[in-house]
Amino acid sequence: MAHGSRKKVSNIEIHQLAGKIASSSRSFDIVEACFLEIAAPSIPQGIASCIEQNVAEVIIMPYFLAAGRHVIEDIPTIVDKESFKYPDISIKSLPYFGSSPVIVDILRTLAENNT
């Protein structure tokens, strides 16, 4: 799940990333891209799409670098509302991308390989 952009190419990039995760993952049967705002599908639409494919659990991975208002307030509010709508489905949001301990290694590697 990403923010969403008015630039179509940015949203396409997120769909491509989801496709790469889907094709390389042994853990996830279904991988869908969705957006907080501006672009489609929305988070509720993405969740509904997964549920229509008979999943037992939906895991939301916020593709955000910092804990701003969207990460702290907006996403949890949406996830709570969707969880209430689908009480028989586990819907949870993972910590946002930028909080991952591997982000330091990723950034360092990128910087070292491009100097």
Based on the model shown, name its key terms.
115 residues, mainly alpha, Rossmann fold, 2 strands
The biggest sheet amounts to:
2 strands, parallel
Distance between the termini: 31 Å
The radius of gyration over CA amounts to 15 Å
The backbone outline, from C-alpha atoms, is globular
- Strand tally: 2
Q: Widest sheet: strand order?
A: 1-2
Helix amount: 40-55%
Tally of helical runs: 4
Low-confidence stretches: none
Taken in chain order, the helices and strands follow as HHEHEH
User: How much β-strand is present in the residues?
Assistant: 5-15%
Number of domains: 1
Overview of the molecule:
With 115 residues, the protein is mainly α. The protein has a single domain (8-113), classed as Rossmann fold (3-Layer(aba) Sandwich). The protein is 48% helix and 7% strand. It is built from 4 helices and 2 strands. The protein has a two-stranded parallel sheet with strand order 1-2. Helix 3 (69-85) links the parallel strand 1 and strand 2. It is globular and about 50 Å long. The mean pLDDT is 95.
Topology:
Blueprint: H1 8-24, H2 43-52, E1 57-60, H3 69-85, E2 90-93, H4 103-113
Parallel strand pairs: 1-2
Quick rundown:
The protein is mainly alpha-helical and 115 residues long.
